[in-house]
Structure formats: structure tokens, C-alpha cells
Amino acid sequence: MDLCLDVEGLLGQLQEDEVSPERKEKLLAAIDAIRFIAASGQSYDFEDYRKSLDANAPPLVIASFETRDEAEAWLKAHPRPPLGAQVLVANEYHRIIYVRETQVRKLLPNPGALEHYLEDMTREGLPAPVATFTRREDAEAWLDSQPEPPSQVFILIAGEYHLAVYHHRIRLRTLYPVRGTPAP
Question: In terms of domains, do 10 and 46 share one?
Fold first, then answer.
């Protein structure tokens, strides 16, 4: 919460010092965004989001569904779908599209979210895996047994790299294969 106030103060000072009307308007929009976070009770969520960025956590998701039908039913019933947010459907990223004026609601597959994240994570090479398993079931049992789940760690399953992930916002532990990566 203090961070939001500090940022609001900094943006306010920058806005006062700015001479360009266009830039003043953009700074005011940024101030309004910070105020919206606080006024809508999302200060802790914002703080958690920033911590997840510092921890290099996986892309944020707001919900997870086993099937597309479940996700579509949730989206249809949602009073105000969160435009641009991401959900997992069968462990794959999807972006929410919502047009308020026409009530159009869609889930667009977004494989790039995880692909870009994995590219960033492996750009300088793969770290040594923290654990090795012969079967996926054993890896899932290991991940589920962690009292403090890691944001993300690399493991091997049957000689193939996987990323073990904890999606903190929805309290979901899951495994993602890291394609095209040979075992050490």
C-alpha cells in the first residue's frame, strides 16, 4: 500500500513538472490506475503480482479449468469478464476477450505466453534439475508434497526437462514440458 502512495506521489510530481498536455494526460491516467488499484481493494494483489515478477514466476492466471466447456461456462456466467486476463484450460494458456458493448466473450489460445516465458527462463541454458523422476505421477506427487511450493523449478521426468510451477494466485501446482531440451 505504501508503494502505491509513493508511486502516486512521484507521478503527481512528474505531472506537475510536465509541460506537454499529452504527457500530462498520460501521467494522470497512470495516477488514476494506481488509485484504481487501491480503491478496488487490489493493493495486496498488486503487491503479490510485483513479487511474482521479481521471482520470475510464470505468467499470471486467474483461473484454471479441466475442459474448454468448463471455461466457456464460467466465461458465459461471469458478470464482468476480466478483459485481457489469462486462464488455463487443460493446462494451456488462454486470453480472455470481452467486448462490453456487444457482450462478446471469447477464450483465445495463447501458447505464446508460456513459450516466451520458457524462452526467457532457458536463454542462458538450463539449470541442473532439482529432482529426477521416471514417471509423471511421481513428479506430481513430489510437487504436491512440497509444503512451500516453488514458484518454478526445473525437474526431469523420464529424461525430459519439465518446469514445476506454482500459480500462487489460484493455488495451482502443475508441470509444463520444456520442449526441445535435451537432458544433461
Answer: yes
Same domain, 137 and 92: no
- Is 149 part of a structural domain of the chain? yes
pLDDT in tens, 105-125: 999 999 999 999 999 888 888
Contact predicate 166/175, CB 8 Å: no
Bridge pairing between strands 64-65 and 92-99: unpaired
| Burial annotation 147-163 (CB, 10 A radius, 16+ → b, else e) | eebbbbbbbbbeeebbb
What contacts 82, CB < 8 A, 6 or more positions away? Answer: 62, 96, 98
- 86 found inside a domain: yes
Q: Mention every residue, 6+ apart, whose C-beta is less than 8 A from residue 136.
A: 157, 158, 175
The number of domains in the chain is: 3
In a domain, 156, yes or no: yes
CA angle, corner 77, sides to 71 and 80, nearest 5?
A: 100
Query: Which helix (H) or strand (E) segment is 107 a member of?
Result: strand 104-109
List the domain range (segments joined by +) for residue 16: 2-54
Cell of 140: 506430481
pTM here?
A: 0.84
**pLDDT of 54 strictly over 90:** no
Average pLDDT over residues 16-31: 90
